[in-house]
Amino acid sequence: MTADTATIRSTLEDLTGLPVPIHGWDIREGVDSTDDPAVWVWAVIEEDDFNREVSLEITDTVRAALRSATPHLWPYVLIRGLHEESPIT
Questions:
Q1: Cα-to-chain-centroid distance, residue 68
Q2: CB atoms within 10 A of CB 70
Q3: Contacts for 10-13 with beta carbons within 8 Å, 24 or more apart?
Q4: Is pLDDT above 90 for 48?
Q5: What is the DSSP string of 53-72?
Q6: Which helix (H) or strand (E) holds 31?
Q7: How far apart are CA 29 and CA 52, in angstroms?
Q8: Looking at residue 1, what is its pLDDT?
Q9: How many CB atoms lie within 10 A of CB 18?
Q10: What value, to the nearest 5°, has the Cα angle with vertex 13 and ends 58 and 33?
Q11: What is the pLDDT of residue 3?
Q12: What is the dihedral of CA 29, 35, 36, 42, to 10 degrees?
């Protein structure tokens, strides 16, 4: 785990006030299509909890927290159902 990944994970685990419980976080660092440093974060939630408002609130909150904690990485925030396969291999 890199120092950035540890910072990201700590930042995510410290988030409060999210609209639904987060069952886990999948994190992947890399470069995006413009060759800029980036981080992809999947918030894992119950499928029944998913709706547009929940998705937007989680995305906005996580993106703001990560931009503050790791400003050199562009955050891409996605939502994944608890029973979906993880995109991280």
A1: 14
A2: 19
A3: 11/65, 11/66, 11/69, 11/70, 12/41, 12/62, 12/65, 12/66
A4: yes
A5: HHHHHHHHHHHHHHHHH-TT
A6: strand 24-31
A7: 26
A8: 60
A9: 15
A10: 60
A11: 82
A12: -30
Domains annotated on the chain, with CATH: 3-81 (3.30.70.1350)
Q: pLDDT digits over 11-47, tens only?
A: 999 999 999 999 999 999 999 999 999 999 999 999 9
Q: Can you read off the two tokens belonging to residue 5?
A: 């990944």
Phi, psi dihedrals of residue 27, rounded to the nearest 5°: -130, 135
User: Which two tokens mark 59?
Assistant: 């995305």
pLDDT confidence of residue 49: 96
Of the pLDDT bands very low, low, confident and very high (cuts 50, 70, 90), residue 88 is confident
pLDDT, residue 89, reads 67
- Give the whole-angstrom CA distance, residue 66 versus residue 75: 7
